[in-house]
Amino acid sequence: MSFASDVRGELARTPMEDACCARSELTAALLCAQGIAWRGRERYAVTFTASEASTVRRYFAMLKRFYGIIGQIRALSGDTLNNNTRYQLVVPEAEALGLLQALELLEEGALFGLRALPTAETVRYSCCKKSFVRAAFTMCGAVSHPDRDYHIEIAVPSEALAAFVVAQLAAFDLEAKISTRKQKYVVYLKRAEEISDMLSLLGASKAMMAFENVRVKKEVSNRVNRQLNCDNSNINRSMNAAEAQIRDIRYIDSELGLEKLPRTLRDMAYIRANNPEMPLAELGELMDPPLGKSGVNARLRRIAAIAEKLRCGDEVRL
User: Fold this and answer.
1) For residue 109, is it left (φ>0), alpha (ψ between -120 and 50) or beta?
2) d(C-alpha 267, C-alpha 262), whole Å
3) Measured between alpha carbons, how far is 60 from 176 in angstroms, rounded to an integer?
4) How far apart are CA 46 and CA 149, in angstroms?
5) Which of 125, 52, 116 lies closest to 88 in space, CA to CA?
6) How far apart are alpha carbons 160 and 171 in whole angstroms?
7) pLDDT in tens, 254-281
8) Other Cβ atoms closer than 10 A to 94
9) What's the pTM value of the predicted model, to 2 decimals?
10) How far apart, in whole angstroms, are the C-alpha atoms of residue 131 and residue 59?
11) Where are the domains of the chain?
């Protein structure tokens, strides 16, 4: 099973105690998954279609408990290209109109008599907003496994509904964005912290902990790799600098003779030549009197300048 399937499975087991939240969740499930079809003359077909059987069983129990409706669950075989089985909960046609009225999804004068968005009363309370987003994700959502990247989304059929979902998330300080994909409007988050917060908001606490465990491991691994890369880069720079310093010292010795250098530079040249892998701070400790790192660096720069003048044929004043 995918990480997204695990999340949807956990959400299907979330307790539902309040009638207001049940109304909000059922409303979201129908609107986001386009589960309402007009049959003419105040006749409607109402279905809940999902990729997990646990989801339609949840809505079966919800309809029975809060609305006294016994639906029919059936499996839908996938096509030749996609063999994934989907599951559908069918509301009896005689009960469909009453359910839509109870969910406040009917509106006189609207296209086919159906509202495009829920009423404000449907998401009046914070618990109802959470329930709405939970159902929207369960029916139309996806989340990437944190091993790969950070991405969670809800794909809905209209721009207005996408904006409505964004507004519900904003109530919990989650700043989602909207993009288009084919004929869908995709509400998404990409920051790891926001995805973790959204999983917690939906009620997927186990998935959130699994997500956080992977995220922390990735961050530690990335931090270690960055530090190793930084250390390797520093080592390479130090080695290259040491090799250049020794080349300068040997060139001065062959062209001028190290004994011609002032004592301070001569001692520095001998110590560096005899300790090619030693860092500057340790070179300074071998000097008499000892030098700090900046002092060692200054003398090596003077040696490099003398070598450069010799290479260019310029006069060297010691």
Assistant:
1) left
2) 9
3) 30
4) 36
5) 52
6) 17
7) 888 888 888 888 888 888 889 988 888 8
8) 9
9) 0.69
10) 13
11) 3-203, 236-312
CATH topology of domain 3-203: Endonuclease I-creI (3.10.28)
Tens digits of residue pLDDT in 106-151: 998 888 999 999 999 999 999 999 999 999 999 999 998 888 888 9
203: left (phi over 0), alpha (psi -120 to 50) or beta: left
Question: Which amino acid, 206?
Answer: K
Q: For residue 238, what are the CA distances in angstroms to 242, 276, 303, 304?
A: 6, 10, 17, 15
Q: What angle do CA 128, 133, 134 make, to 5 degrees?
A: 90
